């Protein structure tokens, strides 16, 4: 494999010394595992299958996360597979909305929801959402949605109020999240720029069913398939499973994984992606909250601590869109979409104080312009202009 320090000294089998890899190898292989370099993934469903879960609390950003990994895919294509129920948006883990392949959601929630509900129970009860209230909400939702009906978020809130249930403050949001986490609701067809709420059992009539340890193994394998090479610590953070469950899943998935040593630590990737050849990696215009950065506990492979603060200004939990070159996050960008087209603005981290730095910045800016042309094609709008920002971009 590529990388000066990557030597295949053995295989993934027990008792044979694992291969060694450099940090540069990790970055290169992650780009390919995530569909950002190398072999093109043929559409949004293929991206969801590869990644298993793509963060989607920001709905437009989540759609571009699918599109940027499947060049040629359009926003209409993504919305079509969402509205057809091939990809579902719900809360599979960490209390965060993700896109997942529809048939995989149930077994994922079976693993991750119990711990999350234990954490949210006290918060819900303090908000007046005890078990009795939440079960009343579930009954009202089932009555309102049975028969493949759908309600927008506003309509669902009105339905809850008509049933005598308060939606003040965050009660409505937490009610929806609880009913989704416990397998009653998910987001369904496109309604304007948003999605409507549907019954999960009707929306996904043939879910994949796995036994507990089998599901643990599948979750571990699918994480490393779409995110490897990565560590078990990365997986445990991403999934929020216990260390014990993470180790059980690794043991079940072990014969489908390849292990490499990076600075003395064990990293894993799916065996079928372990021999991916080096590929040219263009400048990328990734969305906010992208899995390329958020999918790992340790983000130091692609960004420094000082630069991370510029991606998450004030460490407020809002991750800005990313400019990535050679696998490194080198800046942020923002957009404005109006009737006449798309305007983008990139803010690079490096201080262009020297001639060499200015040359690098100019080259990155030119390549970024090509990257956002792909975004414009995805949206189906013309490019108006791409400009350089003098300060870090904001959301």
Overview of the molecule:
It is a single chain. The protein has 395 residues and is α+β, with helices and mostly antiparallel strands. It has two domains: 8-271, no CATH class; 303-388, no CATH class. It has helices at residues 23-33, 44-51, 59-68, 75-83, 105-126, 131-145, 153-162, 171-181, 200-203, 212-227, 232-239, 243-253, 291-294, 305-311, 355-379; strands at 19-20, 54-55, 87-93, 96-101, 185-191, 194-199, 257-262, 265-270, 284-286, 322-325, 328-338, 341-348, 383-388. The strands form four sheets. A five-stranded mixed sheet has the order 9-10-11-12-13. The model is unreliable at 1-15 and 390-395 (pLDDT under 50).
> In what order do the strands lie side by side in the largest sheet?
9-10-11-12-13
Q: What does the main sheet amount to?
A: 5 strands, mixed
Please tally the helical runs, counting DSSP H or I stretches of 4 or more residues: 15
Distance between termini?
38 Å
Shape: globular
Strand tally = 13
Strand and helix order: EHHEHHEEHHHHEEHHHHEEEHHEEEHE
The number of domains: 2
Return the average pLDDT rounded to an integer.
90
- The level of helicity is 40-55%
Oligomer: single chain
Low-confidence stretches: 1-15, 390-395
What radius of gyration results from the CA coordinates?
22 Å
Structural class: alpha+beta
């Amino acid at each position: 494999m590529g990388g000066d320090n990557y030597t295949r000294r053995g295989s993934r089998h027990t008792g044979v010394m694992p291969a060694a890899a450099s940090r540069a190898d990790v970055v290169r292989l992650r780009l390919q595992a995530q569909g950002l370099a190398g072999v093109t993934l043929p559409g949004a469903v293929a991206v969801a299958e590869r990644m298993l879960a793509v963060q989607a609390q920001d709905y437009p950003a989540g759609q571009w996360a699918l599109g940027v990994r499947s060049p040629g895919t359009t926003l209409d294509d993504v919305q079509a597979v969402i509205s057809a129920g091939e990809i579902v948006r719900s809360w599979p883990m960490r209390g965060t909305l993700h896109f997942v392949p529809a048939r995989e959601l149930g077994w994922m929630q079976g693993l991750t929801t119990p711990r999350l509900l234990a954490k949210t129970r006290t918060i819900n009860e303090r908000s007046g959402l005890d078990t009795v209230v939440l079960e009343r909400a579930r009954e009202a939702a089932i009555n309102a949605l049975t028969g493949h009906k759908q309600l927008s978020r506003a309509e669902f809130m009105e339905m809850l109020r008509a049933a005598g249930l308060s939606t003040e403050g965050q009660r409505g949001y937490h009610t929806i999240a609880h009913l989704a986490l416990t397998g009653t609701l998910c987001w369904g067809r496109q309604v304007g720029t948003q999605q409507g709420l549907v019954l999960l059992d009707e929306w996904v009539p043939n879910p994949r069913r796995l036994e507990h340890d089998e599901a643990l193994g599948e979750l571990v394998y699918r994480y490393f398939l779409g995110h490897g090479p990565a560590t078990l610590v990365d997986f445990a953070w991403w999934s929020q499973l216990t260390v014990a469950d993470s180790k059980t899943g690794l043991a079940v998935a072990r014969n489908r994984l390849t292990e490499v040593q990076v600075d003395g630590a064990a990293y894993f990737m799916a065996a079928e992606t372990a021999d991916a050849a080096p590929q040219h990696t263009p400048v990328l215009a990734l969305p906010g909250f992208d899995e390329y950065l958020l999918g790992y506990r340790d983000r130091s492979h692609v960004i420094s601590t000082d630069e991370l603060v510029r991606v998450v200004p004030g460490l407020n939990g809002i991750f800005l869109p990313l400019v990535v070159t050679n696998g490194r996050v080198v800046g942020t960008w923002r957009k404005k979409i109006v009737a006449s087209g798309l305007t983008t603005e990139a803010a690079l981290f490096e201080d262009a104080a020297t001639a060499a730095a200015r040359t690098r910045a100019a080259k990155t800016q030119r390549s970024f312009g090509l990257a956002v042309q792909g975004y414009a094609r995805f949206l189906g709008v013309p490019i108006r202009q791409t400009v350089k920002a003098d300060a870090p971009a904001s959301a």
